């Protein structure tokens, strides 16, 4: 109810119901209906595993929440869109990401581990910061941030990809295998994007560089592109039309973290 002086609302648009694009409009509707109530966004978030990856997350079609497959890329795009809709709402007295870390929930059987909620910005063991941790760091701190997303998606099955970087710096230079792609100054909420960047068969070294006050910052990842075999007519185990083989092939992770702490001076 709205009898208390302060109220907090939990919203899970884009996860348990609806789409993340309706997130801001839903809050506006509550504000219009209860203009004299002071309220916060007390929970928002979605699940995401550092072991699960997809090429093109669709913000209008979230993963099935009660199933094992919670790709990190959907976690990223959800928070990018959610924060862009709520950042300017000064009438919210608080905005609380759910949650800082993955945590135990005995009855659940979803994501990469049974008995766990995977909505955290950091993994359950506190050892790995998910991509989205750096999205908020880039938006909420003045300390330089330069971070290539999807860094744990090391085994690629498509010859072109969007490269996305979280940074609060003004301009980011991208190189792939030493070749300059472009210097990007077109960021929105600290997100830089390069669509349809070609990958060569085999290893691809992706490097970004930015400067601030005469200091140079860099980050790099290595992805391996293996051209997919031609799908069989029967849609067998190696077929691109077989969703189970595709999901399994995308569940990749670098146990070393692949440079979990980027943003080091060059």
Overview of the structural elements:
This protein has 266 residues and is α+β, with helices and mostly antiparallel strands. The protein folds into two domains: 1-128, Glycosidases (TIM Barrel), CATH 3.20.20.80; 147-266, Immunoglobulin-like (Sandwich). It is 17% helix and 28% strand. The protein has four helices and 14 strands. Strands 7, 9, 10, 12, 13 and 14 form a six-stranded mixed sheet that branches. A three-stranded parallel sheet has the order 1-2-3, with no helix packed on it. A three-stranded antiparallel sheet has the order 6-8-11. A hairpin with a 2-residue loop joins strand 9 (172-176) and strand 10 (179-184). The longest helix has 15 residues, at 72-86.
Taking the sheet with the most strands, its summary is: 6 strands, mixed
Q: Which topology of the largest domain does CATH recognise?
A: TIM Barrel
Query: pLDDT under 50 segments (min length 5)?
Result: 231-266
Name of the top-level CATH class of the largest domain:
Alpha Beta
Helix proportion of residues, in percent? 10-25%
Give the DSSP E fraction (strand runs of 2 or more residues).
25-35%
Specify the CATH homologous superfamily of the largest domain: Glycosidases
What's the N-to-C terminus distance?
Answer: 54 Å
């Amino acid at each position: 109810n709205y009898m208390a002086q302060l109220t907090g609302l939990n919203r899970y648009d884009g996860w348990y119901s609806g789409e993340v694009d309706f997130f801001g409009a839903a809050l506006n509707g509550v504000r219009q209906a209860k203009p004299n109530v002071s309220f916060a966004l007390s929970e928002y978030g979605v699940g995401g595993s550092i072991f699960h990856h997809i090429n093109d997350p669709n913000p209008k079609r979230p993963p099935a929440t009660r199933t094992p497959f919670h790709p990190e890329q959907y976690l990223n795009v959800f928070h990018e869109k959610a924060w862009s809709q709520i950042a300017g709402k000064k009438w919210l007295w608080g905005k609380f990401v759910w949650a800082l870390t993955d945590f135990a929930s005995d009855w659940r059987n979803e994501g990469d581990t049974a008995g766990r909620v995977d909505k955290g910005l950091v993994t359950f063991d506190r050892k790995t910061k998910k991509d989205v941790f750096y999205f908020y760091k880039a938006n909420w701190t003045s300390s330089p941030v330069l971070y290539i997303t999807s860094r744990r998606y090391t085994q690629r099955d498509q010859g072109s990809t969007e490269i996305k970087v979280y940074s609060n710096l003004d301009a980011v230079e991208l190189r792939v295998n030493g070749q300059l792609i472009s210097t990007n100054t077109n960021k929105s909420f600290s997100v830089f994007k390069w669509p349809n960047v070609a990958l060569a068969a085999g290893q691809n070294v992706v490097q970004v560089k930015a400067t601030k006050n005469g200091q140079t910052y860099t980050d790099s990842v290595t992805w391996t592109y293996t051209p997919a075999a031609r799908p069989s007519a029967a849609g067998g185990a190696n077929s691109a039309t077989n969703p189970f083989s595709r999901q399994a092939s995308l569940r990749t992770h670098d146990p070393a973290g692949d440079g979990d702490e980027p943003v080091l001076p060059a």
